[in-house]
Design brief:
The chain has 100 residues and is mostly helical. Helices cover 76% and strands 0% of the residues. It contains 4 helices and no strands. The protein has helices at 2-7, 9-23, 30-54, 65-94. Helix 3 packs antiparallel against helix 4 (65-94).
C-alpha cells in the first residue's frame, strides 16, 4: 500500500493537470509539462519532510543513501516517465490540432 502511495503522484499529477486544462479550456499545453515537472521535482522533498514528521530520525549512525537514491530515480527515471504520461494524456484528452 505504501508503494502505491509513493508512486501514485507520477500518474495522478499528469492526469489531474490534463483534466484541469480541459475543464477550463486552456489551449496552451506547454504549461501542463512545466507544472508537471515542477510538481514532480518537489515531490521527493515533500515525502522526506512527511517521513521525518511521521518517523523521527534515530540518533547515532544512519545511512542517507535511500533519500539520494529516491531523488536520483525521481530525476532520471520518474520525471521522464511522467512527461511521457503527460504527452499521452494531452493527446487523448486535449486533442490539439496540428496545422500543416
Amino acid at each position: 500500500m505504501r508503494t502505491l502511495l509513493i508512486f501514485a503522484p507520477y500518474l495522478l499529477v499528469p492526469f489531474i493537470l490534463t483534466l484541469i486544462f480541459k475543464k477550463y479550456k486552456i489551449k496552451s499545453t506547454e504549461w501542463t509539462y512545466i507544472l508537471t515537472g515542477l510538481l514532480i521535482l518537489i515531490y521527493p522533498f515533500v515525502t522526506f519532510w512527511f517521513d521525518g514528521l511521521l518517523n523521527p530520525p534515530i540518533h547515532g549512525p544512519k545511512c542517507g543513501n535511500s533519500q539520494i537514491g529516491f531523488l536520483l530515480a525521481n530525476i532520471l527515471l520518474f520525471l521522464p516517465i511522467s512527461f511521457i504520461i503527460q504527452l499521452v494524456f494531452n493527446k487523448i484528452f486535449l486533442k490539439k490540432k496540428i496545422k500543416s
